[in-house]
Amino acid sequence: MEGWQRAFVLHSRPYSETSLLLDLFSESHGRVRVLAKGARARRSQLKGTLQPFTPLLVRWTGRGDVKTLTKAEAVSLALPLSGITLYCGLYVNELVSRVLEQEFPFSELFFDYLNCLQTLAADNSSPEPALRRFELALLGHLGYGVDFLHCAGSGEPVADAMTYSYREEKGFIASLVAGQRSFTGRQLRALWERDFPDADTLRAAKRFTRIALKPYLGGKPLKSTELFRQFVPKKRPDATSQ
């Protein structure tokens, strides 16, 4: 199996009449762009294989920004994402595509990604905890260091009932003023543990990851979020937004 990589397709688009241009997330090389020649041809053995959420073994050649895919095999059937979990999976794929530099190894994040998809596919409850855990893992692998357990002003451990205001490049500072960037010590502890036992900690986690991911995403909206808003009714009780 020398030279084979475990990978997932993040995004694909047609290239010429019979080929595909793919963004892959691979275990050892991170995000890689490859050209799958002839993948759209009528008799191609790759037809139907190079789909998002399908665990793959792949090989490629080349030294430029775009490699040439030489082999691809599905390890198993695609993870069964549908409805809301499908939109969540598309959101995770878009995050990885937008945030990770090309050909920078993120082996541990690859398994965080796999675990997120498996949780989305297997869990019938809200997908939000899995999304928040993946976002926090992604921020951690990007080197986004923040101390959730200590006040950046005093150095004292956070108190559950105290309110702390988040300041970029500094951390959380005790404050009596509540706002969009304010979090209780209890919420900060949940963020550190990546465990969200109730709606309050989940909402706080979503608020924080939105703040922290914004510099990486810039002002361009996420296509997956726009799709979610278009096709999922706003007030369904079982619906969630990424």
TrEMBL record:
Key word Metal-binding present: no
Q: Which residues form the DNA replication/recombination mediator RecO N-terminal domain?
A: 4-76
Coiled-coil ranges (or none): none
Q: Which domain of life is it from?
A: Bacteria
Record-linked Pfam families: RecO_C (PF02565), RecO_N (PF11967)
Q: Gene3D superfamilies from the entry?
A: Nucleic acid-binding proteins, Recombination protein O, C-terminal domain
Gene Ontology annotations for the cellular component aspect, listed alphabetically = bacterial nucleoid
The biological processes this protein is annotated with in GO are: DNA recombination; double-strand break repair
Assigned keywords, A-Z: DNA damage, DNA recombination, DNA repair
User: Has the keyword DNA repair been applied to this entry?
Assistant: yes
What's its job? Involved in DNA repair and RecF pathway recombination.
Record-linked HAMAP family = RecO
What family, per the record? Answer: Belongs to the RecO family.
What name has this protein been given in UniProt? DNA repair protein RecO
Q: What organism does this protein naturally occur in? A: Pantoea latae
